[in-house]
Design goal:
This protein has about 80 residues and is α+β, with helices and mostly antiparallel strands. The chain has a single domain (about 20-80), classed as Ribosomal Protein L30, Chain: A (2-Layer Sandwich), CATH 3.30.1390.20. Helix content is about 35%, strand content about 20%. The chain contains four helices and three strands, in the order H-H-E-H-E-H-E. The chain has a three-stranded antiparallel β-sheet, with no helix packed on it. Helix 3 runs antiparallel to helix 4 (about 60-70). The protein is elongated. The mean pLDDT is about 85.
Length: about 80
């Protein structure tokens, strides 16, 4: 038996299943001027750096942790995500 027939591919196991991924809209509301370098790096890691800019990211534990570190500089809201 060829290797490809030995087990089904991942795609065949999830065919027909529709999963909606939660997303977060994160907006920077305060400046990072005068803030510690760690907080600046977290902002850059999220893709922010200028006032009133927004990014949309997947709702994951890593992103939530970053938001908690700089919650005084940003606001966030959950939005309906994309289907995968």
């Amino acid at each position: 038996m060829p290797r490809s027939e030995a087990r089904p591919s991942r795609r065949s196991r999830t065919e027909g299943v529709c999963v909606v991924v939660k997303m977060l809209k994160i907006t920077q509301v305060k400046s990072y001027v005068g803030r510690p370098e760690k907080q600046r790096k977290v902002l850059r890691g999220l893709g922010l750096g200028k006032m009133n800019r927004s990014v949309v990211l997947e709702d994951r534990a890593e992103v939530r942790g970053m938001i908690n570190k700089i919650s005084h500089l940003v606001k966030y809201e959950e939005i309906e995500g994309k289907e995968i």
